[in-house]
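#lab-general

N.A. 3:47 PM
ok so I finally got the sequence cleaned up, no stray characters, all 167 residues accounted for. can someone with queue access submit it? mine expired

B.Y. 3:52 PM
send it over

N.A. 3:53 PM
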Amino acid sequence: MLRKLDYGEADRIFTLLTRTHGKVGAIAKGVRRPESKLGPSLELYGHVDVLLAKGRGELDVVAQVQRMPGERIAGDVERMSHAALIAELAERVCEDRHPVDGVYELTVMALDELARETDPRRASAYFLMAALDLLGYAPQLMECASCAKSLPARPAVFSADAGGFLC
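B.Y. 4:20 PM
back already:
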């Protein structure tokens, strides 16, 4: 669950990241009403199993939802801010209904790790580096970005233009 937006009096629009369809927009009808059965399971940045029905427009309709087991990050402001970073990057690299290889798995793993990790910065840093690698933008960290020689065991200079450290 990457994003949510209140819509009308009782509905909510969600942006979901799926394994097979990439980024999908869906509306949950009446989910903001207290008696809604779907409401408690539709938690932002949560891992859920969702049954979607084809909607009339671009949005599918949430027909059924089950929260997957795992730790929750709701209520922890620092973890929520790191989750927002992870979700935003995942949302930006995926086009509607076009999965990007590895992004779903990486996002689920990072959000799960974020809930369990004592230092949430580690989980989001890992996600960012792994996402850059998946997309082909990973910086050279082990060898010189200019000459490809192994980096010496001393501090090195990072060059964004070269795409990594320089010897």
